[in-house]
Amino acid sequence: MARQSSLLPISTARSSIISDEVFRLLVNNVIDYAIFVLDPEGHIHSWNKGAERLMGYTSREIIGKHFRIFYSEPDLTANKPMLELQTAKASGDFQEEGWRIRKNGSRFWGSVLITRIVDNNGKLLGFGKIIRDLTERRLSDLRYRLLVQGVEDYAIFSMDANGYITSWNVGGERIKGYKPEEIIGKHFSVFYTPEDQARSLPEMVLHTAATQGHFEGEGWRVRRDGTPFWASVVVTALRDEEGHLYGFSKVTRDMTERKKLLDTIRQHSQELELRIQEREETSAELEAFAYSVSHDLRAPLRAIGGFADALREDCAPTLGQQGLDYLNEITNATARMNALVQDLLEYGRVSRINLSLGSVSLSEAVKQAIDQLGSDRRGSLTVDVPAELRVESHPQVLAQVVLNYLTNAFKFHEKDSTPAVHVFAEQHDDHVRLSVRDNGIGIAPRHQERIWQVFERLHDRETYPGSGIGLAIVRRAAVRMHGSCGVDSESGKGSTFWIELPASKNGAER
Amino acid sequence: MKGPVLLVEDDPSDARLIQRAFGKMDSSVAIFRLTNGDEVVSYLSGEQPFDNRNAYPLPCVVLLDIKLPRRSGFEVLEWIRRHPSALNRLPIIMLTSSRHSVDINRAYDLGANSYLAKPDTVPQLEQMASEFQRYWLSFNESPDLHGSPNQLRRS
User: Fold this and answer.
1) Is ipTM strictly over 0.90?
2) A335: which chain B residues are within 8 Å (Cβ-Cβ)?
3) pTM of the model
4) What is the pLDDT of residues A440-457, one digit of tens each?
5) Which of A301, A302, A340 should be substituted to probe chain B, the one whose Cβ sees the most B Cβ atoms within 10 Å?
């Protein structure tokens, strides 16, 4: 209203009142808005700088011309200019956004306001017209809309504040199966399963988006044909500059394939976990078994050996030499079986799941093994293990490995030969190899794999006693300590047994 | 006058060999054998049929197996250490075939005074019996089991 009365003096008469002049200058010099006056028929009566800048006409060129020259051919055919004036004349003003034509023929998107100007008696004096160039905004809106419209992989749509759908894109059509005319105006809860609808999930989603700005979630949704799909959803609250909620945008992605894949992976991992658990249970059972062997199996052995000893001590005179010989057989067999049970337990021990590994001094482990050798040690033993070498392993298990190698190195010799055993170690990159070399009977290449199996023996028990488990323990231990083991040998030329373990990274510590 | 050695051992062969080894020693201390954990509790509590303290005096030391019928050696050990009387001072020595570190540590955690693994041969057993007798039955001073409960006793 204020605008109308202020404009009046400009169009009616060239007033000499200062304030009117000031106002005229102001309007004239506004450059962001085209502001001009039309007479009742639509001829241009005034022209400001903004109009010149926007349309390209100087005031001399344009004043007196009809404003229809701003319209395109189709608009003119539709008699748009005069219809606009009639609307403004009837209702006071006319507002729209639309394409207009510049002097050079180019188009611009204008926000147009036409205002009726009447005198105090209600007689129409003309129209005020204000145009703002919104081409940039229009184009970016358009680009954005085209972008959204064209996205196929995402359903992108908008809703009003109550959840009724107001726009729809190709992705929505592709994913959910609705055409825009089928879905616009409907409530977005149609995408939810009956169960989710019953528990008011759609309302909760809008509530969360409205209160927290946005909602993100995944869940089953329903297509137009009733088939379910796994949706990843982002709902964003739309607020105007004053912060009033006017709607929501919603982006939905069809994740059904990925969901299936994830479910399959999850299922596999669960199966795997189950298998690991079963294996751990088996391992625990084995440990329980080993424990029971140690306790129950050795008890009768102790009795056999013990009473054989008691018999020898208490009844020797009545037994005679033959009786005592038999007793010795019993005692030897008992000792053998004890060793066997002991080795089996050791084999079980290195097979256990939780072998905690740490930095171990190789020379310490070798020293510990040599201390345990006892009467097996004959001939010469030279040790060449640098004190600074450390490996990732388990101290007792490593010592056991070395002891088994040493025991073999001293054991497998011709009767009249003198053992010469050499223990040495060297580092190769990130591994350390410990070798035990002997000058014994050696192993033919065809036997070199068999010897690592449990209860594998190459010789009869009388020549070389033993349980046949020692090297099986070594191999199991090597694997459990993330290393490897092997033998280089030829029949009659001695053997070199080795174990390779990861070198400790911080060798100097501990 | 020292009380007897209480030998808690369910395996008759082991018990006989142990008793034989102890019998070879020249000692005035008697050995009394029990075969399960419940019996130990009855004996120490003075319940039937052990209610006659003259016939069944409190032991000076208990040799306790771990794997026992009814009540395990660990349970017996725990029962004794938690006993509300001075009985909780009773020296307990585990004598078992287990060399498992789990068992060894648990025994000490529960308050065992010593842990012995059963030897495999008679000569070793006899040596152990001899050492045991020398240490536990002559050098070692026995606590008073009849006094009031230990003020420092852990809960």
Assistant:
1) no
2) 120
3) 0.49
4) 888 888 888 888 887 777
5) A302
